[in-house]
Amino acid sequence: MNAINASLRNSSLENMTNAQIVCPVTGDGTVSKAVLTTAYCIMLILSLVGNTLIILIVYRNPRMWTASNFLIVNMAASDLLLPFFAVPRMIVEVLVGRERWLIDGTAGLILCKLAYFFQDVSNAVSVQSLIAITADRFYAVMFPLKANAMKSYIRFVIPAIWLTAFGLHAPYLQVFKLCLVEDKLYCCQRWPKTTSLHSKFIYFYLILLLVFGVPLITIIILYVFIVYKLFRRKFPLGAGNSMTQTQRNRRAKQNKNILKLSVTIVVIFFLCFSPLLVLAILRTTGSISQCNIEVFRIVAKLFAQSNCAVNSFVYYVFNTQFRRGFISYLKAIVCCLDESDDGTNTTVGYSTTGQKISLLSQKRTKQNLSITETISE
What we know:
Strand content: under 5%
Structural class: mainly alpha
GO cellular component, one term: plasma membrane
Transmembrane segments: 39-59, 71-92, 124-141, 153-172, 202-228, 258-282
Membrane topology: Multi-pass membrane protein
Protein name: G-protein coupled receptors family 1 profile domain-containing protein
Pfam families: 7tm_1 (PF00001)
Shape: globular
Order of helices and strands: HHHHHHHHHEEHHHHHH
């Protein structure tokens, strides 16, 4: 999370000596570096594929254009920032050294600022999206006859989420700079000299409170009300309630399934970031040295950033529509690969008759349509 990452860098680069700044990341073990690098590469691929498919599945199926799914797409879009800005930087850190930076000049400075900025913006957007998803579920359960009302506000909610994340982390664009230590280049924080240590900690704890504390408490409270309502709900019969028993049962089952998915996403998110939070608190209190827990620091960061890859596959496991869409896209990819292999042997036939081209085009069109139809079932 942004507050956690900021705290780690405040306590590591701002006041570190030259000896401290070059603490080994994972010792000199080649095996440990290979394992971590492989883990980050797998995470990068899974995040790119999984989150891209989430966006495509919802985009291709208008029946999935609900408030919750739009917020899930918003989370997927924010998670896509990490493979571009966070994971490559962590791979460099594992292989070369902690906080090391390989690109100098103006391009290096811009990338240094954007890497940390978008990494923590991504985390903030995910947390705020979780709050919005929880609020949507709360509204759907408490006011079932107006379950789709949230959809009309989603066009304002999503931009507000991003603008809030940008505003909270705007100082990153100022304080992150390239630092040269013992002829080695680092991307580190350099606050203005007029900024006191007290002010830095106020900023850190404010971010921690707004991005971790308040959202967690809010989500827990809302889910307590949701669970209570779901398991004690009684649908009154009469003219004021036009829903049939079948419709009520279907709505209740749908709400419980979505609740299960939402709770799982929230629990996984906070579990992934808990080690990094503990590490941040220990370091900001000065109760632990910088170089004695490097392995734990790397593992904590690995857990936190793995969330971007885990989220999308949670949707595939718990949501039938996402799962069908994922399987349909895989089948379409396999079919396209098979057709491309066949096409290398029949190119002449296509150019002479034109019939095979038409048949192949029709087949691909049907496959594209089947993806949307399969998801919508």
